[in-house]
Amino acid sequence: MLKSNTGKTGPREAVDESDVLQILLRRLDQIEAKLQIDPKGEREYFSVSEAAELLGKATFTVREWCRLERINARKRPSGRGRSLEWMISAKEIQRIIDQGLLPRDL
Q: Ranges for the Helix-turn-helix domain (predicted)?
Protein backbone atom coordinates (compact mmCIF):
# COMPACT_ATOMS: atom_id res chain seq x y z
CA MET A 1 0.00 0.00 0.00
CA LEU A 2 1.18 3.48 -0.78
CA LYS A 3 0.63 6.65 1.19
CA SER A 4 -1.34 9.42 -0.42
CA ASN A 5 -0.64 13.11 0.13
CA THR A 6 -3.02 13.01 3.12
CA GLY A 7 -0.84 10.41 4.89
CA LYS A 8 -3.55 7.74 4.88
CA THR A 9 -2.90 4.33 3.41
CA GLY A 10 -5.12 2.42 1.09
CA PRO A 11 -4.92 -0.08 -1.71
CA ARG A 12 -5.80 2.31 -4.55
CA GLU A 13 -5.66 5.86 -3.25
CA ALA A 14 -4.49 8.61 -5.56
CA VAL A 15 -0.74 9.11 -5.32
CA ASP A 16 1.36 11.69 -7.09
CA GLU A 17 3.39 10.06 -9.89
CA SER A 18 6.60 11.72 -8.73
CA ASP A 19 6.09 10.18 -5.26
CA VAL A 20 5.68 6.73 -6.78
CA LEU A 21 8.77 7.25 -8.92
CA GLN A 22 10.82 8.27 -5.87
CA ILE A 23 9.61 5.21 -3.94
CA LEU A 24 10.47 2.89 -6.82
CA LEU A 25 13.90 4.46 -7.30
CA ARG A 26 14.66 4.12 -3.58
CA ARG A 27 13.61 0.46 -3.63
CA LEU A 28 15.67 -0.18 -6.76
CA ASP A 29 18.72 1.31 -5.04
CA GLN A 30 18.15 -0.99 -2.07
CA ILE A 31 17.89 -4.05 -4.32
CA GLU A 32 21.00 -3.12 -6.28
CA ALA A 33 22.94 -2.56 -3.06
CA LYS A 34 22.05 -6.06 -1.88
CA LEU A 35 23.07 -7.59 -5.21
CA GLN A 36 26.52 -6.00 -5.15
CA ILE A 37 28.77 -8.25 -3.12
CA ASP A 38 31.76 -5.97 -2.74
CA PRO A 39 31.94 -3.43 -5.56
CA LYS A 40 35.36 -2.09 -4.53
CA GLY A 41 36.89 -5.53 -4.10
CA GLU A 42 37.95 -4.72 -0.55
CA ARG A 43 36.88 -7.99 1.05
CA GLU A 44 37.90 -11.46 0.02
CA TYR A 45 35.92 -13.52 2.54
CA PHE A 46 32.61 -13.28 4.36
CA SER A 47 31.30 -15.04 7.45
CA VAL A 48 28.29 -17.34 7.25
CA SER A 49 25.98 -14.66 8.65
CA GLU A 50 27.26 -12.04 6.18
CA ALA A 51 26.92 -14.48 3.28
CA ALA A 52 23.40 -15.39 4.42
CA GLU A 53 22.40 -11.74 4.39
CA LEU A 54 23.89 -11.21 0.92
CA LEU A 55 22.11 -14.30 -0.42
CA GLY A 56 18.82 -13.64 1.35
CA LYS A 57 18.95 -16.95 3.23
CA ALA A 58 18.99 -18.00 6.86
CA THR A 59 22.35 -18.40 8.58
CA PHE A 60 21.52 -22.03 9.32
CA THR A 61 20.88 -22.70 5.61
CA VAL A 62 24.24 -21.29 4.51
CA ARG A 63 26.04 -23.20 7.29
CA GLU A 64 24.37 -26.43 6.10
CA TRP A 65 25.42 -25.70 2.51
CA CYS A 66 29.01 -25.42 3.77
CA ARG A 67 28.75 -28.64 5.77
CA LEU A 68 27.19 -30.56 2.87
CA GLU A 69 29.74 -29.10 0.39
CA ARG A 70 27.02 -27.46 -1.69
CA ILE A 71 29.23 -24.34 -1.75
CA ASN A 72 32.98 -23.92 -1.63
CA ALA A 73 33.90 -22.71 1.84
CA ARG A 74 36.76 -23.19 4.24
CA LYS A 75 37.15 -23.13 7.99
CA ARG A 76 39.39 -20.78 9.90
CA PRO A 77 40.05 -20.14 13.59
CA SER A 78 37.27 -18.07 15.10
CA GLY A 79 39.13 -16.65 18.07
CA ARG A 80 36.92 -18.63 20.46
CA GLY A 81 39.13 -21.45 21.61
CA ARG A 82 39.47 -24.43 19.30
CA SER A 83 36.23 -23.85 17.41
CA LEU A 84 36.44 -23.01 13.72
CA GLU A 85 34.07 -20.93 11.60
CA TRP A 86 33.16 -21.16 7.95
CA MET A 87 34.42 -18.46 5.62
CA ILE A 88 33.04 -17.96 2.10
CA SER A 89 34.90 -16.06 -0.60
CA ALA A 90 33.34 -13.12 -2.43
CA LYS A 91 33.94 -15.01 -5.68
CA GLU A 92 32.02 -18.01 -4.34
CA ILE A 93 29.07 -15.86 -3.30
CA GLN A 94 28.98 -14.36 -6.78
CA ARG A 95 29.16 -17.88 -8.27
CA ILE A 96 26.20 -18.96 -6.13
CA ILE A 97 24.19 -15.95 -7.31
CA ASP A 98 25.09 -16.62 -10.96
CA GLN A 99 25.04 -20.43 -11.11
CA GLY A 100 23.41 -21.75 -7.94
CA LEU A 101 24.55 -24.48 -5.57
CA LEU A 102 26.97 -27.25 -6.37
CA PRO A 103 25.36 -30.63 -7.15
CA ARG A 104 24.63 -32.96 -4.25
CA ASP A 105 26.81 -36.01 -3.76
CA LEU A 106 24.55 -39.01 -3.41
A: 45-99
